[in-house]
Amino acid sequence: MQSRLTATAILAGIALLPLGCKSDKPAESSASKAPQYNFAHINPNGTDGVAPKLNGAPPEVTKVFDYIDQHIDDHVQNLQKWIQQPSISNSGEGIPESAEMVKGFMDKLGCQTTKVYDPGITEYGTPGNPIVYGKCDEGAPKTVAFWWQLDTMPVTQPDNWVSPPFEARIVTGKENGVPQYPRVLVGRGASNSKGPVMTQLNALMAYKAVNGKLPVNLILVGEMDEERMDIGLRQFIKQHSDLLAEADALYAGGPSEGCVYVELTTSGKSWGRGPTVSDIHGVNKRTADSPAWRHITMLSKLISDDGNTPKIKGWEDGKQEPTPEQVAELKKRAEHMDLKKMAENTGLARYKTDDPYKVAYDGRFGDSFNLDGIWGGNMYAGGAGAILPNKITSKHNFRYVPNMDGMNIVKKLREQLDANGYKDVEMKLVGDVPWSKGSSPDADISVAHRKAAAMLGLAGPGQDMFASNADHYEKDGRIKPLGVNVTDDNPTGGYWPSYLFSDGPVGQKVGTVSIPMGMGARGGAGGRAHAANEYWVVEGANWQQGMAGAEKLVVASLWEYAQTTTTTPKPKTTAK
């Protein structure tokens, strides 16, 4: 649904906590009349209490680290407040209010320019959700852009949650089925992606509170359509690429798979058989054809019996296989993969293969054709009610890799439907996010992330400095030498709109933004995106896992980027 950008946010309930002081009165939220911040003091260095071993950190950075330690409780409450404000892009719930809330965050940070943009009707015929933009002139030579996902998925199975999904309760990891973490925040959007975004925002606020200004200028772009194929952001970049013209780098990024999303609909009206205007009484199945059964039969002809191999001729055209070097990397990754534990943490009974290498390969170079949902007819749980549906719709996403093409996949799907005898089945393109190979790992921003990890005493070259969960730690807390990023939830992490920002090869170029992206900048821990009991770790067993440690990585990375210049910064204009 189209967002109403004129909605008024209740500022008293959405502001970040005042810097340097505790809140003595919880703010109101649309999710709860009296939200509770149910935790005792968070241990910033984790339950083992061992602080990072700093290496060459200057006073302006170490002072920020101390500030984060002193204010971590407030920082966790900032995340709780935000999660208590729903922002569900597929339904529109809380979208305008959350847009104004995030604009307030940017105002609090001191950005001279903040604005909520309405991208209007997108090329897919659907209104885009708002884009929140901020520009902060710190008088620095270099400018870093941040991309923020502000929207979340809906809650489809509330009874499966250990606490209400918009309460943002702090529970023990054991209560939430992740005993390796002492305390986690449970809530919709906790890991995807309000936890990571608030971690970055807290770090920016802390740096400015201590030093008066940031070491870099900022351009902040927050979108509320990530869960709708980034359709609003795509439109915004088409319209306003100039707003990112001064950006020298994107703080965090990396390669992205492609994803194209379609809806398929079988109806009696288009078919010319069965009910044509509305659902009718189920007794009529004795004498009438069923669009619902036709839809199920149609889908069965598009996929193998095990549901894993698409039967769509030519849909993998152009697919790029891994190089020998990438195969070696996948084999190295497979040596460290515990498929049983990974499956449990994802909520799976098991993977479709017991071969770790095949799981690693499929996670990075595989493609897929998914049935995301299907509806029509009697949708009420329990009970009875005889219905012969006149229309059935199913949703599908195709995950694809370089050098496949989303629009070619849609074309091949249409051709296959027609060849199978289903010309009457209607197909709607919801959106397409092309693949991206990312930027050079030698870009200044990526080098800065590696230097930041070294500053904090993390491992040097050859180790996964930003691994995000306990599977990647030795028993003594040291990070395992993997050399690749792996998460419990997903071996690759899914798509994101990298193609709209990257200066590297992309599946489709939209707009004129082309900037290096920070490869591997990932701190903190979280999981269960899109699932029940989504969480963000606020207190880990060691400092690397917790929220305070993640904020310190942001601070260190920005300071290091300000000191690392092999590429001349772009000309800057003064704030308007």
Q: What would a concise description of this structure say?
A:
This protein is α+β, with helices and mostly antiparallel strands.
Description of the structure:
The chain has 576 residues and is α+β, with helices and mostly antiparallel strands. It has two domains: 11-255 and 438-445 and 510-547, Aminopeptidase; 258-319 and 367-433, 2-Layer Sandwich (Alpha-Beta Plaits). The protein has 13 helices and 16 strands. A six-stranded mixed beta sheet has the order 1-2-6-3-7-14. Helix 2 (59-83) packs across helix 4 (190-211), helix 2 packs across helix 13 (547-563) and helix 4 packs across helix 13 (547-563). The radius of gyration is 24 Å and the shape is globular. This is Acetylornithine deacetylase/Succinyl-diaminopimelate desuccinylase. InterPro entries: Cyt/Met_Dipeptidase, Peptidase_M20. It holds the Pfam family Peptidase_M20.
